[in-house]
Specification:
This protein is mainly beta. 0% of the residues lie in helices and 48% in strands. The protein is built from no helices and eleven strands.
Length: 126
Amino acid sequence: QVQLVESGGGLVQAGGSLRLSCVVSGRTLSSYGMGWFRQAPGKEREFVGGISRSGGRTSYAGSVKGRFTISRDNAKNTVYLQMNGLRPEDTAVYYCAACQACTLAVHSTTVTYEYWGQGTQVTVSS
């Protein structure tokens, strides 16, 4: 059974930074392409960014490009989302997700990911 557990969310002022972590257990992280998604109240879950199995490829939503960075440490079975220059519109529950079928490419659709964490709340005050 694969489990994903996010941590690192919290309350931060606009312009601040947070680093989210996602620990994968049950299977080695290198078996999965990984993605970060977020969902704000009343809105659909949206792609934030993703990273390929090896870490050689990343992809970001236009709204976070240049501010957020995804990385992974396969030895620690952990994926990170470094968020800088946070804005109130970044407020959401952030989820990490794992895609076993993803090999080289980074996928941005929720249906591609088989496993999900429980989410961590990020709140950015103005």
